[in-house]
Design brief:
0% strand
């Protein structure tokens, strides 16, 4: 699953199945809290397997001392009953939905203390639009037991730099996770520090898909054109035992990094991925996100086509919402985005509703606020966090 993030560039992994698929703010599966803590890694442009050695960091003992860990979801203090994970999750979301939180910030503070690592990470991402809130929540996230949360926190700080947070980021240059070390380098650089970026060069040759994809992501964001030959040399090297679709997703991450570093020709494979077959929807979704971040005006009619095609050729809600998100990044009218969002706001899939919340937030329009105020009381915590982040943007 690939999970795409609220603030497109603060991303990280997933590919435990899409990531981001998919998508948007991610999805919560019916698994117990301990498994959730272990499995979550970063979020869009990386990968982590569900059953492989990469899927857990059981040796990690980072637990924020300043914030007591909640035993279940964002607003429950009771110890989880792991005998029935599905029933436990239903209990969590019902409690969260019924809680009358005063505003989006209250919800994000609660979510940042969740026992579910994915929810903690989403809360940090959703706080990027509010530097004061991010400064409040980031220290605990940087010390989180889960490497994915630490990664997200570093990427969030890179997007909303704060020199005061650099002291909390500095120790992560020696983190056990290569992905975290790379993101810490980017965060410190954006905060005005001068960490050594050379260790990231070795990461793009790793056989670990997560590490390689996140290294490409960070190199693209660092903006040093000297990395172009290294990225090119790494293409086609290793990853022989990795699922071919995941390899293509990693190649898209490399292509996006190369475009950011000035190689405009590499935009072509990203545009081509928009037309991947339905069974490779992850490629289309990731390509949408990349083209939006790259502000590719040439891709605008292609993205609009993904929205307009109807009948048997109509694309999935995830693809259509991802295309609308990218068009908003490029500068399309909020009216179009609101129309697409309204089409799916009551969709039965929480992942789709989370994407709707992200899209509504991107419009920054008064009309979107009412819908976001409804979604912040959704029955799924990932949707609520996405809505809270959207309200922060629309404010």
């Amino acid at each position: 699953m690939v999970v795409q993030h609220l603030s497109s560039r603060v991303s990280v992994i997933l590919f435990s199945g899409v990531g981001l698929t998919l998508v948007g703010v991610g999805c919560m599966r019916d698994i117990d809290a301990e498994t959730a803590r272990q499995q979550f890694s970063s979020k869009q442009q990386s990968i982590v397997t569900v059953d492989g050695a990469q899927a857990s960091q059981q040796g990690s003992t980072r637990t924020p001392a300043s914030i007591p860990a909640l035993a279940t979801g964002p607003v429950s203090l009771a110890e989880p009953s792991l005998a029935n994970p599905a029933a436990e999750r239903a209990h969590i979301v019902s409690q969260l939905a019924s809680t009358q939180l005063k505003d989006a910030q209250s919800l994000l503070r609660t979510a940042a203390r969740s026992a579910w690592a994915a929810i903690r990470a989403h809360a940090i991402e959703a706080s990027v639009g509010n530097p004061e809130l991010l400064t409040e929540l980031a220290p605990a996230a940087l010390a989180d037991e889960n490497r994915g949360v630490r990664f997200v926190a570093c990427m969030a700080i890179a997007e909303a730099p704060s020199e005061g947070l650099s002291v909390f980021v500095q120790p992560l240059l020696q983190d056990e996770s290569a992905s975290v070390r790379a993101s810490a380098t980017l965060a410190l650089t954006r905060c005005g520090k001068t960490p050594d970026p050379s260790p990231i060069a070795a990461m793009i040759f790793e056989n670990d898909p997560e590490v390689r994809a996140n290294a490409y992501l960070v190199l693209g964001e660092l903006g040093n054109r000297s990395a172009v030959p290294m990225i090119r040399d790494s293409l086609g090297q290793g990853l022989s035992l990795v699922n071919p679709l995941r390899v293509r997703l990693i190649d898209l991450a490399a292509a996006e990094a190369l475009v950011k570093l000035g190689d405009q020709h590499e935009i072509e494979p990203i545009r081509a991925a928009l037309f991947a077959p339905p069974e490779q929807a992850e490629l289309t979704i990731v390509a949408c996100g990349a083209l939006g971040r790259l502000k590719d005006e040439v891709a605008r009619p292609m993205l609009e086509r993904l929205l307009s095609v109807d009948g048997n050729s109509k694309r999935s809600p995830e693809i259509r919402l991802s295309a609308a998100l990218s068009l908003m990044e490029i500068g399309a009218s909020p009216d179009m985005a609101i129309l697409v969002a309204k089409e799916y706001i009551t969709n039965s899939d929480a992942r789709v509703r989370a994407l709707v919340a992200s899209l509504l937030g991107k419009t920054r329009s008064p009309e979107a606020v009412a819908s976001l105020a409804s979604l912040i009381r959704d029955s799924d915590p990932t949707v609520q966090v996405a809505a809270a982040g959207g309200l922060e943007l629309a404010d």
